[in-house]
Amino acid sequence: PLEMSAKKPVPFLRQVVSVTKKVHRDPRFDDLSGEYKPEIFMKTYSFLDSIKKQEKEMVQKQLKKCRNMEQKEKLQQLLNRMTQQEQAQKKQQKLRERELSLKRQQRELAKQGKKPFFLKKSEKRKLELAEKYAELKRSGKLESFLNKKRKRNAVKDKRRLPSQKNL
């Protein structure tokens, strides 16, 4: 530390030794990391899918062999998480493909000289719901899905109604 005069008041924040501050980079927002393109990312890391599949099979085998209830419960939770991640990834892929097909259609219409028309979020949601309905009908699970939906809505309606005590 440097010697200072005792007759002058010491500054509130005195720099005794200059310290070089570390600059932290967040790759999500930094230009040096490049631009995120999900298609390229999926192609580059597609080998991970096969590894995940192998790991899932291994967990299933361990679950069958396991006798300890605590261990079995942990393995079951892990398996559930793996299947949920897989389903979420498939759903995201479907959504991306649907958006790409809509963009292709718009490009073709633009080439023909027509004015491009972009769907609103609500219309996209309606199309998605119609597709889900068709898929459930194909697989034969439509009736059970609608029953569950009816029950859920009935519970919601019951909650919204004033209780009998208050009347």
TrEMBL record:
**What coarse category fits the chief subcellular location reported for this protein?**
nucleus
> Which InterPro entries does this entry report, sorted A to Z?
RRP36 (IPR009292)
**Coiled-coil residue spans:** 52-139
Q: Which UniProt keywords apply?
A: Coiled coil, Nucleus, Ribonucleoprotein, Ribosome biogenesis, rRNA processing
Pfam families given for it?
Answer: RRP36 (PF06102)
The keyword Coiled coil belongs to this UniProt entry's keyword annotation: yes
Q: Report the locations given in the UniProt record.
A: Nucleus, Nucleolus
Instruction: Offer one example of a GO biological process linked to this entry.
Output: maturation of SSU-rRNA from tricistronic rRNA transcript (SSU-rRNA, 5.8S rRNA, LSU-rRNA)
Q: Where is this region: Disordered?
A: 141-167
Q: Which GO terms describe its cellular component?
A: 90S preribosome; nucleolus
Compositional bias annotation for Basic residues: 147-167
Instruction: Share what the entry says about its subunit structure, partners included.
Output: Associates with 90S and pre-40S pre-ribosomal particles.
Q: What does this protein do?
A: Component of the 90S pre-ribosome involved in the maturation of rRNAs. Required for early cleavages of the pre-RNAs in the 40S ribosomal subunit maturation pathway.
Q: Which family does it belong to?
A: Belongs to the RRP36 family.
PANTHER family, A to Z: RIBOSOMAL RNA PROCESSING PROTEIN 36 HOMOLOG
Q: What is this protein called?
A: rRNA biogenesis protein RRP36
Which organism does this sequence originate in? Corythaeola cristata
Which lineage ranks, top first, belong to the organism behind this chain? Eukaryota, Metazoa, Chordata, Craniata, Vertebrata
What gene does the UniProt entry assign to this protein?
Answer: Rrp36
